[in-house]
Specification:
Strand content: 15-25%
Number of domains: 3
Largest sheet: 11 strands, mixed
CATH class of the largest domain: Alpha Beta
Helix content: 25-40%
Length: 438
Amino acid sequence: MKKINIGLLGCGTVGTGVAKILIEKKDLISSRVGAELNLKYVADLDAARDRGIRFNEGILIKDPFKVVDDPETDIILEMIGGENIAKDLILRAIGNKKQIVTANKALLASHGNEIFRAAAAGGVDVAYEASVGGCMPIIKTLRESLAGNQVKSMVGILNGTCNYILSKITDDGSTFEAALSEAQAKGYAEADPTLDVEGFDTAHKLAILTSIAYCMEINFRDIYIEGISRITPLDIEFAGQFGYRIKLLAISKFRGNSVEARVHPTMIPFENILSNVNGSLNAITVSGDAAGDILLSGRGAGMMPTASAVISDTVDLARNIISGSVGRIPLLSCQTQNISRIPVMPVDEISTHYYFRFAALDRPRVLSKISGILGNHGISLKSVHQKGRKTNGSVPLVMLSHLCREENVKKALDEISRLDVVSTKPALIRIEDDNQED
C-alpha cells in the first residue's frame, strides 16, 4: 500500500486532536483513502507535555523547518496559528512542493491572497475547511456543492464563544461578565477573549467565506466589525418582548458590483432558525439562486470537531496525490484568473431596520424632540415604547424603525446624544427580519 507522509506543525489543542485521529484511526482512514497516512513528524516546542498520545521515537521534534524541508514529507498540517511563523512555514512548504492543510483563519484573512497566489504558481493545493465553522463543512459546500449557484447571501453564527455568552444572558439572565467567566471556565473562551467578543474572529471567517462565495479577493480590512461587549440584559429582555433574539451574526449579501460584509449583534425573529442555535454551536444559512436556502450547523470549535475537519482536508489531499491531481478544485472556488476585486460596501451605505434605546429624562416633549430628529434624517418609526421604571430620573424609550440608511441613523443618533434630555449614549442594534415591512 502506498505511504503518504504527514508532517504536523503544532501540537496544541487542535494539533493533539489531529494526531489522535491519525494514530487511533489509521486503519479506518487507510481503508477509505487506499493509502497509509503516516504521521512522520510532529513539530512542537513543548516536547515534554503529556498529550495523552504515545509517539514513536523520533516523531516529536522541536524544529518545524525540518518538517517542511524534509523531502519525504508529502502533506504539511499547519496547526500553529498566528500570522508570523505560520506564514513563513506555509510559504516555505509551498516552495518545497508540499500540499498544505491549515485551520488558521486569521492568517488566511490577512495573507490568504498571497498564500493562494504562491500555491497556484507552485502547483500546490491549500486546504482550509477547519478555518471556518469547525466540523461544519461550509467551505466544501460553497466550493463544490453550490458550484452551479450564484450565492445571494450568507448569514451565520460563526463564533461559539459569543453564542454561548449571549445564550447565557438570554436564558439565565447572566451579566456579560458572568457569562464570559463561565465561558472561560468551560474552555470556550480564551484568557484574552478580545478576538472573540469584539467580533474579529467572526470577521476573519466571513472574509474567507465571502471570497469563496463571490469569486473575489479576500478582503478582511473593509468588513464592518462590532462585538457583543456592549449588549446588556435590558436590551436582550426588550428584544424578547418584541419577538426577537440577539445573536452575533456574520452577514454577507451579493449586490452585483459590490458586496455587503458585516459582523455585529443582530436582532432576528424567534421563527428564524438561527435564533434557536444556542450554546457554543455554530450555524450558517446560505441562499443560492438554484438551490434556495441551505442550513449547516455543528460544533464550531474544540479539539475533536476542528480536528475532524483537518483530517477531512488531509484525506482529500491524499486522494489527490494518489490520482496525480493538483488544483482539481480551485482554491477560492473560481479559477485564479477569474478572481475579481469586488469592493465591500461601507457600512454607512447599507439599509436595514433598527432598534434604538434612549435613556430619556422624564420631561415634557422628550418624545417629540427625539422622533423629530429621526424624522429630519429620513428615519420612519414602526413603533415607540416607553419601557420599565424610572432610574435616576430617566426611563428607557425604545423605538423600532422601518428600513433606513445607516449613514442617516448615525447622524441622527449623534444629534440626539447631544440633547440635554438624553442621559446616556443611545443604544443601537440592527434587525434582520424578512417579514418586517419596509
